[in-house]
Amino acid sequence: MRGQISATHIRSQLDQVIDPSDEIVVIFGGVWMFGSKLGVVPNEVPSYLTRVILDHLGPSRTVLFPTFTYGYAKTRKYDVVLTPSETGILTEVATQSGLFQRTNSPLNSYVVCGPRSDEVLGIRDETLWGSSSVMGWCERSNARICMLGEPWENA
Fold it and tell me: How far lies 4's CA from each of 42, 95, 118, in Å?
């Protein structure tokens, strides 16, 4: 990528992969791939990007970011509020923003905001990726999964 990436460009790219009828959007992000091109101070990149995404998707959609914590496998310690996400700074800022709530799944948690948040927060994962997981719910709900700055195979 050359030059700066504007909020308009981000919205345009989202429009290319998100259908107007999509109610649920899951975003896996690799901000490090393009964050320096956003034209904002580095420590403001995650909050800036979160605002652009949420403003563009609007309040009628439910948005999820993964906040996986693979360290749980070793520590067996998890706190919905205190355990940091291991999936990047974007998810950490979303967690701390007060706009999102985090699911209670130690390994594969998500932060969620929007009208269907209660459905997601009510899921009691019996498996990580099976029908009783958040990803199972996403599949049944026809969620749109988007990769932001990260090739699919790396997510």
Answer: 14, 27, 37
Distance in angstroms between the alpha carbons of the first and the last residue of the chain = 20
Q: Which residues contact 148 (CB under 8 A, 6 or more apart)?
A: 27, 28, 29, 30, 31, 90
- Write the pLDDT tens digit of every residue in 8-27: 999 999 999 999 999 999 99
| Residues 6 or more apart whose Cβ sits within 8 Å of residue 137 | 119, 120, 123, 143
Please, are residues 27 and 37 in contact by the beta-carbon 8 Å criterion?
A: no
Q: Supply 8's token pair.
A: 């308009």
CB-CB neighbours of 77 under 10 Å: 11
State how far the Cα of 110 lies from the Cα of 49, in Å rounded to an integer.
18
